[in-house]
Amino acid sequence: MSRFTLARALGAALLLATPLAAAHSAIETPAAKAAAAEAAETARDDMRATFGKRFLENGEYLWKKGKGGAEVTRVVIDLADQLAFAYADDELIGVSTISSGTDANPTPTGIFPILEKKRMHRSIKYDNAPMPFMQRLDQFGIALHGGHLPGYPASHGCVRLPPAFAAKLFAATSVGTTVMIGAEDEEQLATR
Known about the structure:
Layout: H1 3-17, H2 30-51, E1 61-63, E2 74-78, E3 83-88, E4 91-97, E5 110-113, E6 116-122, E7 130-136, E8 143-146, E9 159-161, H3 163-172, E10 178-182, H4 186-191
Parallel strand pairs: 2-10, 8-9
Antiparallel strand pairs: 1-4, 2-3, 3-4, 5-10, 6-7, 7-8
């Protein structure tokens, strides 16, 4: 069984084991965090296989030709490498650089459904800051959205995307689409 298949099965098992009342909330258990970290590791391998690249320049994104109208069924965020990966079922169709949360305002890890989508949203918490193509992940204001990418983690916890990639992703996802946010632990870093 591939690592991706195993991570996806674990994620599905976690979703099924969650009580119905919490079915639309985040899963931030150690097992969910481990599954998301594993998904991020697999996504890096998929990027090399699909696009022939090991890294992207800040602000760069790639979208597979002929997949412009494909439905994104899963998004994987790799906090270690500051990358986002868009999948249509098991096929990687897009990858982008990101800017995630800082140490003071970290991006949460685990498995999240997209709870709400707004083409243009303004932050209630942070001085009415624009959040184009906002896709909310939790009840605390964490979201995927278009924004400035300085080349390092710099947000208040959100995942900022290049505006053009944010627009493509927004068009290809639905409320309920799974977002897996993974961070490597010390053991994973040592084996890279």
